[in-house]
Amino acid sequence: MLASLIDIDRQLSDAVRELRWEPLVAVFTALSWGWVKSLPFMAAGIWHDVRTRAARPPLLTAAAVLVAYTVANLLTTVAKDAVDRVRPEAAQAAIELPASPSFPSGHASGAFASAVVIALLVPKLRTAALILAILIAFSRVYLGVHFPLDVAVGALLGTATAALVALPLLRRRPSAPVAPR
């Protein structure tokens, strides 16, 4: 079964590579820059907390993004070292292959960790954050530096990490008792 899954993974990767179009390669290359997977989300958190003077402490949203992103990246590094999956062939990649192993995708885990924190804590930005994370994750397959399974597992790892960080922040504080009149 694992062999079949890996074969499907390679076939999907080949199919995506066949869709490459030079203007999109440039767009997806920009989406693959390292800072894109966290800084826009932290900026959105800062903007939200400052603009709305949220009931949470100032900058808590950005701090939650940073914590989720950092933990997801640590877990990704551990998983990469444990699995040590080889990346797609360098000759078929649109950009230079990173030196790290392929599984799971660090871009996908970092982007989803960041985006899901924003999606949970700033509902007005949910759609934009998740679309950006999906585009960042897809860029890795489109550019030929990851297989689809690498990206899917990275996205799940980032999502789970974000949920562990952000969900406790959503718990409502008990309301103050109403004084009798």
Short overview:
This protein is mostly helical. It contains seven helices and no strands. The chain has one domain (22-170).
The end-to-end span amounts to 69 Å
Largest sheet: none
Sum up the overall morphology in one term. globular
Low-confidence regions? none
Radius of gyration in whole Å, from Cα? 19 Å
**How confident overall, as mean pLDDT?**
86
Describe this structure in words.
Helix 3 runs antiparallel to helix 4. 38% of the residues are buried. This protein has 181 residues and is mainly α. The protein has one domain. The mean pLDDT is 86. It has helices at residues 2-18, 22-31, 39-52, 60-83, 106-121, 126-142, 148-170.
Give a topology summary.
Layout: H1 2-18, H2 22-31, H3 39-52, H4 60-83, H5 106-121, H6 126-142, H7 148-170
Helix pairs in contact: 2-6, 3-4, 3-5, 4-5, 4-7, 5-6, 5-7, 6-7
